[in-house]
Amino acid sequence: MKIKCSIDNKSQLLDVNSNKPLNLILIEESGGTIKLSSCNSHLCGNCIVLLNDEAVLSCLIPAFQLKGARIVTFEGYQKSRFFHDLERAYADTGSQPCPHCFNSKTLIFESLLQRIIKEEGTTSRDEEIDEYAIVKELSLNTCPCLDAQEVIAIYNAAAVYRRRRRVRRS
Ligand code: FES
Predict the structure, then answer these.
(1) 129 Cα: distance to centroid of ligand 1 (angstroms)
(2) What is the DSSP letter of 99?
(3) Weakest-pLDDT range from 7-21, 28-42, 44-58
(4) Of all atoms in ligand 1, which is nearest to the CA of residue 48?
(5) What single DSSP character describes residue 110?
(6) Architecture of domain 2-77 in this structure
(7) CA-based, 20 to 30 A from 81: which of 61, 71, 160, 162?
(8) Distance, CA 101 to ligand 1 centroid (Å)?
């Protein structure tokens, strides 16, 4: 089937089997420059990409769900200015994901930043951040290298930088 979508901000017309998983599509279409895990058991969580700004396990997304989708891989994301917010948060807190899960956890943090800070624009700024939801979302990747406290500290540090961007834009 033919599918129009965008991958790392480039329009693509894919010609793929409708059930082919997104991680394999990305690896093949990029000629191997996009590196994603393929554990074949849907358990490792090292195949995360952003699909319409949400962090998803790309091995669980069949091609037929990609019509009109906006897909961002870590390789594309690390060229964006938003990555600097997380790099600074990692440096500020002295904590960061291990090399094994760095790409996937960074994209999960990014999806949380986009969602929560967007919601802050429509609700009270004093509303409590749902720490449980943040830690739960990070568990999409099963690597235990960061504990809950580190996850919250990184998120909070990155959120400060992201809010500053929003203030500068407005
Ligand atoms: S490849 Fe392991 S969870 Fe997707």
Answers:
(1) 28
(2) T
(3) 28-42
(4) 4
(5) H
(6) Roll (3.10)
(7) 61
(8) 11
Residue 133 has pLDDT above 70, yes or no: yes
Give the Cα separation of 170 and 168 in Å (integer): 6
Query: With 70 as the cut, is the pLDDT of residue 164 above it?
Result: yes
Max mean pLDDT range (4-18, 33-47, 122-136, 154-168): 4-18
Please name the amino acid found at residue 50: L
Q: How far apart are CA 165 and CA 132, in angstroms?
A: 25
- Report whether 63 contacts 14 (CB < 8 A): yes
pLDDT in tens, 41-100: 888 899 999 999 999 999 999 999 999 999 999 999 999 999 999 999 999 999 999 999
Burial of 137-158, coded b for 16+ CB within 10 Å and e otherwise, reads bbebbebeebeeebbbbbbebb
Name the closest-CA residue to atom 1, ligand 1. 38
Ligand 1 center to residue 49 CA distance, Å? 11
Domain boundaries, the chain: 2-77, 82-169
